[in-house]
Design goal:
Largest interface: A-B, 49 and 44 residues
Helix content of chain B: 10-25%
Shape of chain A: globular
Distance between the termini of chain B: 14 Å
Distance between the termini of chain A: 60 Å
Oligomer: heterodimer
Radius of gyration of chain B: 31 Å
Strand content of chain B: 35-45%
Largest sheet of chain A: 8 strands, mixed
Largest sheet of chain B: 11 strands, mixed
Strand content of chain A: 25-35%
Radius of gyration of chain A: 25 Å
Chain lengths: 605, 450
């Protein structure tokens, strides 16, 4: 039976956010929100202080009684309390793991993917070919104090000595737990099954060893789920249970506190499953950017450290190069001014843009931070390396390397943007354009922003009631921006690169041309579904192969349908008047900023 | 809630600095002793202990099984060993040759790899050898005069512990190697004795007081606590480590930049104060004349990147190899120094000051500082940590972002509703009357308390 009221809480590193969900106007969705500073660290050292403060804010907003003498009330006849409580947590640095494997690009990479996908912050990846001295590896493991270690290596029934050597590093380092004392740090062994007894011999005295199926049973196969499930189980048993105050939070939530990124992944997976489309999500923060993807049901996540919108702003520019940032601005400024501007944002990270010029600068930086983060995600979420390839005579002529990215843009059907710069953009078209310019969707791709970032709480709810979670997610969380239609191919100067036939719900059929280098918007309100037929020109691919017709569906949104004729990958714009004209025309097409600021008559310093 | 003005300026405060050696050593001061910034507080001549990996497989010329490692090893994890002590023994071959492997250092066995046949010994820092003489000719069984034929290193080269110093083809067609037991520099190759001498660069650590003041506490073997009553200026960004020198206010006002023409030979050993800006040319000139510090309102990121030879990415500084410490009080670009900061520095022109550029924006914020020890005046209590304060009408504040960056004003209104900005965003805002009488609306996030 569907719960009538759900209290969900996400304990973040700085803020604990509570949301109350229930039925409003016949729909299940958000009723009230509350937040309070997280209290894992001193002086409180009890997570429940912050949790209760956030819940009390919800009580104050709604007038409902949810707590009784600091105890959570379950629904009673007076209407007090809630039917269900769920929680997620990334406080205290989230789930911090060290990962070890034998070969850097093979088992260690698989183990890294498993840990990231389970919501962990991977502090280091150790392998026998990582070009470090044995003592350095041991020292790194010792210094980290990880919550747990994932140890992989070797294919089943293959060589055992290398994975045993890695096990010995772990034993030599003997890392201590981050929270609590008197228990052993867990080690999940997901390597060659033949080495289990030896690994146990080496580690069981000093560590809590858990055996799961090999992450790489053969070179050609990767099986991440058993390791991920064990990580999640241990997160509850060890990390949560020993963190200050979490014992009570576990009691409240009937042992279902999830790591925040895992919960986000659950929600993305659910959306992908229900819509039958691959999903790519980005969450751009002040210091880091998270990228999530669900491709053919497989969830992956990466964290790009030092790519963010405040603390890491100067680093984004160093990595992206200033010229790439400048190309997105509808006015001219110098590299020198841009560097000073990003430096100032970095040293005063909490300030906000007050002028349009500064807003545009932030948006230009966001495009580059996202572009780099997506490139990182694509490089990590890749096919298995070192796999034997069967070659036919034809294939021999076109040799493919192993380890190609699994994120194929024209197979991504939905993009979700999250984080302050996207969620709080004054105009939704700004968020849409940032997503299109940085992620470069191909084919037919729906665009959304997460307006209130309650993905973690809804992800936790999805475990108990997926329908309720999805209803609240689509109703209160996701803001539909529209759909981007883009045939991929070389960036041409002029001419038509595709024809598009749009069939609206009313039966009206509109024929449009996608012009090279041009962005156009066809209005289409949220909730409307449009039939799309793309007839790409020679050399252009809309998802079915070059020059082949593609049929699909598009959804309307606050912007509508965006026809993008700029080609893929987007060509760097260079400098000069030609660049200004192009950028201004793109910004004007989406009405991203007030017309006078974009035309060059205003907004320039 | 609003933060205090980050570039904090305080007269007459109690300043306390703990001086701590990274390795154990000797404390050279006494409790109650008056010290100046260059007084040595503690010194350590201990070399940092290195971990040594001893390869039993190489020692026994055999790939050992885990069981063989167990049988051969004479030491267990945690055991202490001394230099040249036998740590593994094996009987091998038809003639039951007894082979041994000795420890090259004194220390503690930290780890024995059964899988790879390796022993890790953590060297005792107090017994760390400053040098190692490797009998290369003897190990390769060659004539000492032909030593250079087999060497892979030259005098002056840097070698790492475990790095190859010589190699020779063996009768079986494989190569035989000689490894360096320590990391260091190749000091000497002797063709008469057939040896290679590797010397570990000895770097005795000297710890000075950094600030002038009184020793109030001693930390055995490590250092001391120094206290002083003085004036304090906290900057927003800095480069370079600790320095001290005479304060020299060069700019005539907070709005005047420090140009290279203003820096002269007379500024050697001094901490120079500019107004709004310091360009690269002035920083280079300051370095050339031997100035130890520069304080200014602003500087350009590009100039600072040029100065340190690498881009400024994440703001964690203080470790740069610079003979000069830079402290910026306002931000990047040309920014007039806040008038109270400039006035304080002017009042102490000619005083001995201590300056540190270490900055960290994230995780335990560290800001650069300038300390004027023993400045005149009465005490006003210890430095308070950065705190958040409730805004109120009448408070004096400073704007820290465009378009009013650096301007001071008085709070005249605190709208309860979010206000629309030029960006079209609706933000929690504050109404200010700026010093020129202009009334403006500014996002609350963009102001700092005076």
């Amino acid at each position: 039976m569907r719960p009538r009221t759900v209290l969900a809480i996400d304990v973040g590193s700085t803020t604990s956010k509570a949301i109350l969900l229930g039925v409003k106007d016949g729909k299940f969705g958000l009723i009230a929100r509350g937040q309070a500073p997280t209290t894992v660290e001193a002086p409180s050292e009890d997570v429940m202080v912050g949790v209760r403060n956030a819940v009390r804010q919800v009580e104050a907003t709604t007038g409902l009684r949810l707590l009784d003498n600091d105890r959570l009330l379950t629904t009673d006849r007076d209407g007090a309390g809630v039917d269900l409580f769920v929680a997620t947590s990334s406080a205290g640095g989230g789930l911090q793991m060290a990962v070890a494997g034998v070969i850097k690009t093979m088992t260690a990479e698989s183990a890294n993917r498993a840990a990231l996908g389970a919501g962990a912050i991977v502090m280091d990846v150790i392998s026998i070919d990582d070009a470090r001295l044995v003592v350095e590896r041991i020292r790194r493991l010792k210094e980290f104090r990880p919550d747990m270690i994932l140890l992989a290596g070797g294919t089943d029934h293959g060589n055992t000595s290398h994975v045993l050597a890695v096990a010995e590093y772990v034993q030599a380092a003997h890392p201590q737990p981050r929270f609590g004392t008197g228990f052993k740090v867990p080690v999940i062994y997901a390597g060659n099954v033949n080495a289990r007894d030896y690994v146990s011999d080496i580690l069981s005295e000093t560590m809590d060893v858990r055996m799961v199926d090999n992450i790489r049973p053969t070179l050609e196969r990767e099986d991440l789920e058993p390791a991920r499930a064990e990580i999640h189980k241990l997160f509850l048993e060890h990390v949560m249970a020993h963190a200050p105050g979490y014992r009570e939070l576990l009691d409240w939530s009937r042992n279902t506190v999830m790591p925040t990124p895992t919960a986000v992944g659950s929600m993305m997976k659910l959306l992908s499953q229900r819509r039958g489309r691959n999903v790519l999500g980005v969450d751009i923060g002040g210091a880091t950017t998270d990228v999530f993807s669900v491709m053919d049901g497989t969830f992956n996540r990466t964290v790009s450290a030092n790519l963010g919108m405040s603390y890491s702003m100067a680093n984004v520019m160093v990595e992206a190069k200033p010229e790439r940032v400048l190309q997105w601005l509808p006015f001219e400024t110098t590299v020198w001014e841009l560097q000073n501007w990003t430096g100032n944002k970095m040293i005063r990270p909490t300030t906000l843009p007050q002028t349009l010029e500064e807003l545009m600068l932030e948006h230009a930086m966001a495009r580059e931070a996202l572009r780099l983060s997506i490139a990182h995600h694509r490089s990590v979420v890749a096919g298995l390396k070192g796999v034997k390839q069967k070659r036919s005579l034809d294939a021999g002529l076109a040799q493919e390397t192993t380890g190609q990215s699994l994120i194929v843009m024209n197979e991504v059907g939905i993009i979700i943007g999250s984080g302050g710069v996207l969620s709080h953009a004054p105009r939704r078209s700004q968020a849409a354009l940032i997503l299109i310019d940085s992620i470069e969707p191909e084919g037919i791709t729906e665009l959304y922003v997460d307006s209130v970032f309650m993905l973690p709480q809804l992800g936790a709810l999805a475990e108990a009631d997926p329908d309720a979670a999805l209803e609240a997610f689509e109703g209160d969380c996701l803001v539909p921006l529209g759909t981007c239609i883009c045939p991929a191919g070389p960036a041409a100067e002029r001419g038509a690169i595709a024809k598009v036939l749009l069939t609206f719900a009313s039966g009206r059929v509109v024929s449009e041309t996608v012009e090279a280098g041009i962005l156009r918007v066809i209005p289409c309100p949220a909730g409307e579904e449009v039939g799309v037929e793309i007839l790409p020109g020679r050399g252009y691919d809309a998802g079915e192969g070059k020059g082949r017709r593609r049929l699909g569906k598009a959804r309307g949104g606050e912007i509508g349908l965006v026809l993008d004729g700029r080609g893929r990958p987007l060509k760097p714009l260079g400098r000069g008047e030609g660049r200004l004209q192009q950028v201004r025309s793109w910004l004007a097409a989406l009405e991203a900023y007030p017309a006078e600021a974009v035309s060059g008559k205003g907004g320039e310093a | 809630m609003v933060r205090r003005h980050e570039a904090e300026v305080r007269e007459r405060v109690l300043i306390r600095r703990e001086r701590y050696l990274p390795l154990p050593g000797e404390v050279l001061v006494k409790r109650g002793q008056e010290v100046s910034p260059d007084t040595l507080v503690a010194k350590s001549e201990v070399l940092p202990g290195e971990p040594y990996v001893i390869d039993l497989n190489a020692g026994f010329h055999k790939r050992l099984t885990p069981e063989e490692v167990d049988r051969a090893a004479l030491k267990r994890v945690g055991d202490r060993v001394t230099t040249h002590e036998v740590i593994a023994r094996m009987v091998k071959g038809a003639f039951a040759d007894v082979l041994v492997v000795k420890s090259p250092v004194s220390g503690t066995v930290e780890f024995i790899s059964r899988a790879y046949g390796r022993v890790l010994i953590r060297e005792d820092p107090r017994s760390a050898l400053p040098m190692a003489i490797i009998p290369v000719a003897k190990q390769l069984q060659v004539w000492p005069g032909s030593l250079r034929m087999y060497l892979t290193v030259r005098e002056g080269a840097e070698v790492r512990q475990g790095g190859v110093v010589a190699a020779m083809p063996s009768a079986l067609g494989t190569l035989e190697y000689v490894y360096s037991p320590i990391s260091g520099l190749v000091e000497k190759v002797c063709s008469r004795s057939g040896t290679v001498t590797v010397v570990r660069p000895a770097r005795p650590t000297m710890l000075d007081a950094y600030i002038g003041g009184t020793v109030t506490d001693l930390i055995p073997e490590r250092g001391a606590v120094i206290e002083t009553k003085g004036a304090y200026v906290q900057g927003i960004f800095g480069l370079g480590g600790e320095h001290h020198g005479l304060l020299s206010v060069v700019a005539r006002g907070p709005g005047e930049p420090l140009t290279d023409g203003m820096v002269t030979e007379a500024h050697a050993g001094k901490v120079l104060v500019g107004g709004s800006h310091v360009p690269l040319a002035a920083l280079r000139k300051a370095l050339a004349v031997g100035a130890v510090g520069v304080v200014a309102g602003g500087a350009d990121v590009a100039d600072l990147s040029d100065l340190i030879g690498q881009p400024i990415g994440v703001a964690v500084t203080g470790q740069e190899d610079l003979d000069l410490t830079l402290l910026i009080t306002e931000g990047f670009g040309s920014m007039p120094m806040a008038a109270p900061t400039f006035a304080l520095l002017q009042r102490h022109d000619g005083a001995v000051v201590s300056i540190n550029g270490a900055t960290q924006v994230r995780a335990g914020v560290v800001r650069p500082e300038l300390i004027i020890p023993r400045a005149d005046g009465s005490e006003s209590g210890p430095l308070a940590p950065e705190a958040e304060h409730q805004l109120a009408v009448g408070m004096r504040v400073r704007v820290v972002r465009k378009p009013y960056f650096g301007l001071w004003g008085t709070v005249t209104g605190l709208p309860t509703e979010p206000m629309a900005m030029e960006t079209e965003a609706r933000l929690k805002a504050v109404e200010l009357e700026l010093e020129d009488g202009q009334r403006v609306m500014v996002p609350e996030a963009n102001i700092e308390l005076a």
